[in-house]
Amino acid sequence: MPTDWRRALAIVAHPDDLEYGASAAVATWLDDGRECVYLLASVGEAGIDTLAPAEAGPLREREQRAGAAAVGVETVEFLGHPDGVIEYGTALRRDFAAAIRRHRPELVLTLNHHDTWSWGDSVFWNTPDHRNVGRAVLDAVADAGNRWIFPDLAEEGLLPWDGVRYVAVAGSPRPTHAVDASSGLDRAVASLLCHRTYIEALTKEDPETYCRTFLEGGMQGVAARFGGRPGVSFELFNR
């Protein structure tokens, strides 16, 4: 995984998207003195069946801020797109391009934009939000550097930024790179555990056992492909 960058911007659809694996890598990056900002398209208000969106949204936003703090991320922003029905289009691309221009990262991190997920020998259909957000992120990286796309952003003081060197896609079924993130595992577990309300609605398993088992299993799966070291894998796009 490249190390010639200092600032990262992580753009995902929902609270907990980054905590299901990528946060261990974020923790190790911060240990190296790098910076990372989290940007979420929604507050995840439709994610808990037993809670109405008006109640779930603020709760999940609080849990996400706590989860980010557990790995050392201080800045978390929410765009307020409707959970579950986030639409790919110019409005979403504009929001992401604006954030990229504002934060000026060299690395942009997002979640699997492909149609499917893989876990072990099983394949699962990906959600519309993940697909739409991931694809919009990939497009917005180019939009952010083109002064003639969304020219109103420049009028608002957000000048073009063509400094993104890499886009790293977490959870991709086509990983190309990996980060040795074993030193970030405990913080990643603590980070995912901050989403306790969501996890308790998801499983009857003890939340801490669930979080550790899930993350350790994912990192060991990466180890099997990338030199035997537990880690977090990414599909990396160079620019």
From TrEMBL:
Keywords: Zinc. Coiled coil: none annotated. SUPFAM superfamilies: LmbE-like. Gene3D superfamilies: LmbE-like. One of its GO terms (molecular function) is hydrolase activity, acting on carbon-nitrogen (but not peptide) bonds, in linear amides. One of its GO terms (biological process) is glycoside metabolic process. This is PIG-L family deacetylase. It comes from Streptomyces telluris.
